[in-house]
Amino acid sequence: MKCVFCGNQLTKDTQTIERRINNHLIYIKNVPVDLCNFCGEVYVDDNIVSEMNQILQKQKQISNTITVDFKTFREQSAANFNDVSRQNHYNLVTT
Ligand SMILES: [Zn+2]
Fold first, then answer.
1. Does residue 78 surpass a pLDDT of 60?
2. Can you give the pTM of this predicted structure?
3. 81: CA distance to ligand 1 center in Å?
4. Which of 13, 21, 76, 78 could form a disulfide with 35 if both were Cys (CB 3.0 to 4.6 A apart)?
């Protein structure tokens, strides 16, 4: 994949992506992106965008700027998916 602005080859990277919901800023850390090292343009995959939207949906009660970790969210989603029976105790285990 190449940068649409400068034609440079993109490299895989992780970035902190800034999103806005109800006028609150949310920083999502460790988002997998394609980065142009030449002009700094960041490309986020559609799948990643929908995963970020899931993260944002879970942050409805926020009242301040917060930071969430994309990687952690993904790991937690995977854990929930793989072991539904553990879900009842999930919060106790992870916090
Ligand atoms: Zn570029």
1. yes
2. 0.65
3. 37
4. 13
